[in-house]
Amino acid sequence: MKKAGILNRHLAGALAELGHGDGVLVCDAGMPIPDGPKVVDLAFLAGVPSFAEVVDGLLAELVVEGATAATEVRQANPAAAGLLDGHFPGLALVPHEELKRLSAGARLVVRTGEARPYANVLLRCGVFF
After folding, report:
1. C-beta neighbour count of 124 within 10 angstroms
2. Cβ proximity of 87 and 5 under 8 Å
3. What is the model's pTM?
4. Which residues are catalytic?
5. In whole angstroms, what is the distance from residue 12 CA to residue 86 CA?
């Protein structure tokens, strides 16, 4: 058994399959999940695991070259906006409906237990070299 890092075998395996440019949607419990991408649903209880915990855990495992979130996050969820701004200085913002459209092209969807609105981000994988 792994001692550290992501222990969820479904998530660890899905992350190992990602390549440069692949999209990973990290979403709250209310985000519609598109058909097509592999889905790892981590939601256990409302708020568990939190959006922040999942983003932090993924960033310990992934190289991210870009991120996109909904414009509405700034007004509706300042805590999530602050987290995203802190992690992704070049964060791209699009209307929520556009984020939902873009998420259909993700290779992986990671659903959190987050119960606050607009706690969603689409990550674009980079390479470590």
Report:
1. 16
2. no
3. 0.95
4. 20
5. 25
